[in-house]
Amino acid sequence: WGITARNREQNFALNLLMNEDIDFVTLLGQAGTGKTLLTLAAGLTQVLEAKRFAEIIMTRVTVPVGEDIGFLPGTEEEKMEPWMGALMDNLEVLTQSQEGGSWGRAATNDLLRNRIKIRSLNFMRGRTFLNRYLILDEAQNLTPKQMKALVTRAGPGTKLVCLGNIAQIDSPYLSETTCGLTYVVNRFRGWRHYGHITLTRGERSRLADLASERLYALPRNPRRGRLSEEAHEFHRHPASSPPAGVRPPAGHAAGAGTAPEVLPGPAPRNGDRGPGGAQPRGREPDRPNGHAQPA
Protein backbone atom coordinates (compact mmCIF):
# COMPACT_ATOMS: atom_id res chain seq x y z
CA TRP A 1 0.00 0.00 0.00
CA GLY A 2 2.99 2.28 -0.38
CA ILE A 3 3.53 2.78 3.37
CA THR A 4 7.07 2.50 4.71
CA ALA A 5 8.52 3.22 8.11
CA ARG A 6 9.99 6.69 8.59
CA ASN A 7 11.81 6.07 11.86
CA ARG A 8 13.08 3.24 14.03
CA GLU A 9 9.98 2.93 16.20
CA GLN A 10 7.68 2.69 13.17
CA ASN A 11 9.91 -0.06 11.77
CA PHE A 12 9.58 -2.02 15.01
CA ALA A 13 5.81 -1.49 14.98
CA LEU A 14 5.44 -2.77 11.41
CA ASN A 15 7.46 -5.87 12.26
CA LEU A 16 5.15 -6.61 15.20
CA LEU A 17 2.01 -6.00 13.14
CA MET A 18 3.20 -8.33 10.36
CA ASN A 19 4.56 -11.04 12.67
CA GLU A 20 2.36 -14.14 12.57
CA ASP A 21 3.56 -15.26 16.01
CA ILE A 22 2.32 -12.07 17.73
CA ASP A 23 -1.34 -12.16 18.79
CA PHE A 24 -1.58 -8.92 20.74
CA VAL A 25 0.03 -5.55 19.94
CA THR A 26 -0.25 -2.23 21.78
CA LEU A 27 0.95 0.98 20.13
CA LEU A 28 1.34 4.04 22.30
CA GLY A 29 2.31 7.47 21.05
CA GLN A 30 1.44 11.12 20.79
CA ALA A 31 -0.81 12.54 18.09
CA GLY A 32 0.54 12.19 14.56
CA THR A 33 3.02 9.34 15.10
CA GLY A 34 1.29 7.06 12.57
CA LYS A 35 -0.39 4.52 14.85
CA THR A 36 -3.63 4.16 12.87
CA LEU A 37 -2.03 4.42 9.43
CA LEU A 38 0.57 1.71 10.11
CA THR A 39 -2.04 -0.57 11.65
CA LEU A 40 -4.44 -0.21 8.72
CA ALA A 41 -1.71 -0.72 6.12
CA ALA A 42 -0.49 -3.89 7.85
CA GLY A 43 -4.06 -5.15 8.26
CA LEU A 44 -5.04 -4.60 4.62
CA THR A 45 -1.89 -6.35 3.44
CA GLN A 46 -2.68 -9.42 5.53
CA VAL A 47 -6.39 -9.44 4.63
CA LEU A 48 -6.32 -8.70 0.89
CA GLU A 49 -2.93 -10.07 -0.15
CA ALA A 50 -1.69 -12.65 2.36
CA LYS A 51 -5.25 -13.89 3.15
CA ARG A 52 -4.31 -14.43 6.80
CA PHE A 53 -7.48 -12.82 8.13
CA ALA A 54 -11.04 -12.77 6.83
CA GLU A 55 -11.69 -9.08 7.52
CA ILE A 56 -10.75 -6.08 9.63
CA ILE A 57 -12.96 -5.10 12.55
CA MET A 58 -12.47 -1.63 13.99
CA THR A 59 -14.02 -0.31 17.19
CA ARG A 60 -13.57 2.38 19.79
CA VAL A 61 -15.31 3.67 22.89
CA THR A 62 -17.73 6.53 22.22
CA VAL A 63 -16.39 9.14 24.64
CA PRO A 64 -16.73 12.68 23.23
CA VAL A 65 -14.01 15.30 23.56
CA GLY A 66 -16.52 18.01 24.49
CA GLU A 67 -20.26 17.88 25.05
CA ASP A 68 -22.28 14.98 23.65
CA ILE A 69 -24.29 15.81 20.51
CA GLY A 70 -27.07 13.42 21.49
CA PHE A 71 -28.88 10.64 19.63
CA LEU A 72 -27.48 9.41 16.30
CA PRO A 73 -29.97 7.73 13.92
CA GLY A 74 -29.31 4.71 11.73
CA THR A 75 -27.86 1.23 12.03
CA GLU A 76 -24.92 0.21 14.19
CA GLU A 77 -22.37 1.11 11.51
CA GLU A 78 -24.12 4.39 10.72
CA LYS A 79 -24.10 5.34 14.39
CA MET A 80 -20.38 4.53 14.67
CA GLU A 81 -19.36 6.28 11.45
CA PRO A 82 -19.04 9.78 13.00
CA TRP A 83 -16.65 8.29 15.57
CA MET A 84 -14.49 6.72 12.87
CA GLY A 85 -13.20 9.85 11.20
CA ALA A 86 -9.63 8.66 11.76
CA LEU A 87 -10.39 5.49 9.77
CA MET A 88 -11.79 7.44 6.82
CA ASP A 89 -8.87 9.88 6.81
CA ASN A 90 -6.29 7.10 6.78
CA LEU A 91 -8.14 5.14 4.09
CA GLU A 92 -7.99 8.25 1.93
CA VAL A 93 -4.22 8.37 2.41
CA LEU A 94 -3.86 4.67 1.53
CA THR A 95 -5.93 4.94 -1.65
CA GLN A 96 -4.23 8.05 -3.03
CA SER A 97 -1.47 5.96 -4.57
CA GLN A 98 -3.89 3.61 -6.35
CA GLU A 99 -3.86 3.67 -10.16
CA GLY A 100 -6.90 4.18 -12.34
CA GLY A 101 -7.80 7.73 -11.38
CA SER A 102 -10.97 8.57 -9.48
CA TRP A 103 -12.77 5.47 -10.80
CA GLY A 104 -10.01 3.20 -9.56
CA ARG A 105 -9.99 4.86 -6.15
CA ALA A 106 -13.78 4.57 -5.91
CA ALA A 107 -13.62 0.85 -6.70
CA THR A 108 -10.86 0.39 -4.11
CA ASN A 109 -12.91 2.23 -1.48
CA ASP A 110 -15.90 -0.04 -2.15
CA LEU A 111 -13.68 -3.09 -1.74
CA LEU A 112 -12.22 -1.78 1.49
CA ARG A 113 -15.63 -1.00 2.94
CA ASN A 114 -16.61 -4.64 2.35
CA ARG A 115 -13.52 -5.87 4.20
CA ILE A 116 -13.51 -3.32 7.04
CA LYS A 117 -16.37 -3.58 9.53
CA ILE A 118 -17.16 -0.96 12.15
CA ARG A 119 -18.56 -2.35 15.38
CA SER A 120 -19.70 -0.73 18.61
CA LEU A 121 -17.92 -1.68 21.81
CA ASN A 122 -21.29 -1.79 23.59
CA PHE A 123 -22.28 -5.01 21.80
CA MET A 124 -19.05 -6.99 22.23
CA ARG A 125 -20.12 -9.03 25.25
CA GLY A 126 -20.48 -12.72 24.41
CA ARG A 127 -19.02 -12.50 20.89
CA THR A 128 -16.11 -14.54 19.50
CA PHE A 129 -14.03 -13.27 16.58
CA LEU A 130 -12.44 -15.97 14.41
CA ASN A 131 -9.60 -15.12 11.98
CA ARG A 132 -10.16 -11.38 12.35
CA TYR A 133 -7.80 -8.42 12.48
CA LEU A 134 -9.28 -6.47 15.38
CA ILE A 135 -8.33 -2.81 15.88
CA LEU A 136 -9.22 -0.88 19.02
CA ASP A 137 -8.69 2.85 18.55
CA GLU A 138 -8.49 5.41 21.40
CA ALA A 139 -7.86 2.62 23.89
CA GLN A 140 -6.82 5.09 26.58
CA ASN A 141 -10.51 5.87 27.19
CA LEU A 142 -11.37 2.30 28.21
CA THR A 143 -11.57 1.10 31.79
CA PRO A 144 -9.67 -2.08 32.76
CA LYS A 145 -13.02 -3.92 32.89
CA GLN A 146 -13.92 -2.85 29.35
CA MET A 147 -10.46 -3.79 28.13
CA LYS A 148 -10.78 -7.26 29.61
CA ALA A 149 -14.20 -7.69 27.96
CA LEU A 150 -12.69 -6.86 24.56
CA VAL A 151 -9.46 -8.86 24.80
CA THR A 152 -11.37 -12.00 25.80
CA ARG A 153 -13.39 -11.80 22.54
CA ALA A 154 -10.39 -12.90 20.48
CA GLY A 155 -10.77 -16.41 19.08
CA PRO A 156 -8.36 -18.66 17.13
CA GLY A 157 -6.46 -16.88 14.39
CA THR A 158 -7.41 -13.37 15.59
CA LYS A 159 -4.93 -10.56 16.09
CA LEU A 160 -5.77 -7.65 18.40
CA VAL A 161 -4.15 -4.23 18.04
CA CYS A 162 -4.77 -1.50 20.64
CA LEU A 163 -3.91 2.11 19.81
CA GLY A 164 -3.86 5.02 22.19
CA ASN A 165 -2.28 8.09 23.70
CA ILE A 166 -2.47 8.40 27.47
CA ALA A 167 -1.96 12.17 27.18
CA GLN A 168 -5.38 12.46 25.47
CA ILE A 169 -7.72 10.79 27.96
CA ASP A 170 -11.21 12.22 27.48
CA SER A 171 -12.99 10.32 30.27
CA PRO A 172 -13.10 12.33 33.53
CA TYR A 173 -12.94 9.13 35.56
CA LEU A 174 -9.64 7.79 34.18
CA SER A 175 -6.01 8.82 34.48
CA GLU A 176 -2.72 7.75 32.95
CA THR A 177 -2.26 5.08 35.61
CA THR A 178 -5.85 3.77 35.84
CA CYS A 179 -6.89 3.53 32.16
CA GLY A 180 -7.32 0.18 30.45
CA LEU A 181 -4.41 0.70 28.05
CA THR A 182 -1.90 1.05 30.88
CA TYR A 183 -3.54 -1.92 32.60
CA VAL A 184 -3.04 -4.37 29.70
CA VAL A 185 0.51 -3.16 28.99
CA ASN A 186 1.51 -3.99 32.56
CA ARG A 187 -0.40 -7.28 32.69
CA PHE A 188 0.84 -8.71 29.37
CA ARG A 189 4.45 -7.72 29.86
CA GLY A 190 6.74 -10.71 29.36
CA TRP A 191 4.31 -12.83 27.28
CA ARG A 192 6.11 -14.02 24.16
CA HIS A 193 3.05 -13.52 21.91
CA TYR A 194 2.65 -9.88 22.91
CA GLY A 195 4.47 -6.76 21.74
CA HIS A 196 4.42 -3.11 22.77
CA ILE A 197 5.95 -0.10 21.00
CA THR A 198 5.96 3.55 22.08
CA LEU A 199 6.14 5.86 19.08
CA THR A 200 7.94 9.09 19.96
CA ARG A 201 8.43 10.97 16.70
CA GLY A 202 5.53 12.74 15.04
CA GLU A 203 5.15 12.48 11.26
CA ARG A 204 1.87 14.30 10.65
CA SER A 205 3.07 17.89 10.21
CA ARG A 206 5.41 20.37 11.83
CA LEU A 207 2.43 22.19 13.36
CA ALA A 208 1.08 19.00 14.94
CA ASP A 209 4.56 18.09 16.23
CA LEU A 210 5.05 21.48 17.86
CA ALA A 211 1.55 21.42 19.36
CA SER A 212 2.13 17.94 20.81
CA GLU A 213 5.38 19.13 22.36
CA ARG A 214 4.30 22.47 23.80
CA LEU A 215 0.60 22.18 24.59
CA TYR A 216 0.86 19.50 27.23
CA ALA A 217 0.90 20.44 30.90
CA LEU A 218 3.91 18.39 31.96
CA PRO A 219 7.47 19.22 30.84
CA ARG A 220 8.95 17.19 28.02
CA ASN A 221 12.42 16.06 27.16
CA PRO A 222 13.30 17.94 23.93
CA ARG A 223 15.73 15.24 22.80
CA ARG A 224 13.22 12.41 23.05
CA GLY A 225 9.96 14.29 22.44
CA ARG A 226 8.22 12.75 25.43
CA LEU A 227 8.16 12.81 29.19
CA SER A 228 11.24 11.41 30.85
CA GLU A 229 10.86 8.78 33.56
CA GLU A 230 12.41 11.17 36.09
CA ALA A 231 9.82 13.84 35.28
CA HIS A 232 6.98 11.31 35.66
CA GLU A 233 8.32 10.20 39.03
CA PHE A 234 8.79 13.76 40.22
CA HIS A 235 5.23 14.80 39.38
CA ARG A 236 3.86 11.65 41.00
CA HIS A 237 5.90 12.27 44.17
CA PRO A 238 6.52 16.02 44.53
CA ALA A 239 8.35 15.53 47.84
CA SER A 240 11.36 14.19 45.95
CA SER A 241 14.04 16.42 44.50
CA PRO A 242 13.30 17.58 40.93
CA PRO A 243 15.51 16.11 38.17
CA ALA A 244 17.70 18.25 36.01
CA GLY A 245 15.71 20.35 33.55
CA VAL A 246 12.38 19.94 35.39
CA ARG A 247 10.88 23.03 36.97
CA PRO A 248 9.30 22.33 40.37
CA PRO A 249 5.71 23.44 40.96
CA ALA A 250 5.02 26.64 42.84
CA GLY A 251 5.61 26.27 46.57
CA HIS A 252 7.72 23.10 46.20
CA ALA A 253 10.55 22.48 48.64
CA ALA A 254 12.84 19.48 48.28
CA GLY A 255 12.08 16.86 50.90
CA ALA A 256 9.13 18.78 52.31
CA GLY A 257 6.41 18.37 49.66
CA THR A 258 4.25 21.25 48.55
CA ALA A 259 4.09 24.14 51.00
CA PRO A 260 0.62 24.68 52.52
CA GLU A 261 -1.31 27.73 51.54
CA VAL A 262 -1.10 30.51 54.12
CA LEU A 263 -4.25 32.55 54.59
CA PRO A 264 -3.83 36.24 55.35
CA GLY A 265 -4.82 37.30 58.84
CA PRO A 266 -4.93 40.51 60.91
CA ALA A 267 -1.65 42.30 61.38
CA PRO A 268 -0.10 41.68 64.84
CA ARG A 269 -0.26 44.53 67.31
CA ASN A 270 2.71 45.89 69.22
CA GLY A 271 3.54 43.54 72.04
CA ASP A 272 1.61 40.55 70.68
CA ARG A 273 3.27 37.20 71.20
CA GLY A 274 2.92 33.95 69.34
CA PRO A 275 2.08 30.58 70.87
CA GLY A 276 3.92 30.02 74.15
CA GLY A 277 4.97 33.66 74.35
CA ALA A 278 7.29 33.41 71.34
CA GLN A 279 7.94 36.48 69.28
CA PRO A 280 6.08 36.39 65.89
CA ARG A 281 8.39 35.31 63.08
CA GLY A 282 9.75 38.03 60.86
CA ARG A 283 9.18 40.80 63.41
CA GLU A 284 11.71 42.83 65.29
CA PRO A 285 11.75 42.43 69.11
CA ASP A 286 9.98 45.06 71.16
CA ARG A 287 12.24 47.96 72.06
CA PRO A 288 10.67 50.35 74.58
CA ASN A 289 11.37 54.02 73.88
CA GLY A 290 13.55 53.08 70.89
CA HIS A 291 16.28 51.54 73.14
CA ALA A 292 17.48 47.95 72.96
CA GLN A 293 16.35 45.63 75.75
CA PRO A 294 18.99 44.81 78.31
CA ALA A 295 20.61 41.37 78.08
Summarize the entry for a quick read:
The chain is an alpha/beta fold. The protein is built from nine helices and eight strands. It starts with 7 loop residues before the first helix and ends in a 37-residue tail after the last strand.
What does this structure look like?
There is one protein chain. The protein is an alpha/beta fold and 295 residues long. The chain is built from nine helices and eight strands. It has helices at residues 8-18, 35-49, 76-80, 85-95, 101-115, 144-151, 180-187, 206-214, 229-236; strands spanning 24-29, 55-60, 116-118, 132-137, 159-164, 194-199, 252-253, 257-258. The strands form two sheets. It has a six-stranded parallel β-sheet with strand order 3-2-4-5-1-6. A hairpin with a 3-residue loop joins β7 and β8 (257-258). α1 (8-18) runs parallel beside α2, α2 (35-49) crosses α4 and α6 (144-151) packs across α7. The chain is globular. Mean pLDDT is 76; it is low at 217-228 and 253-264.
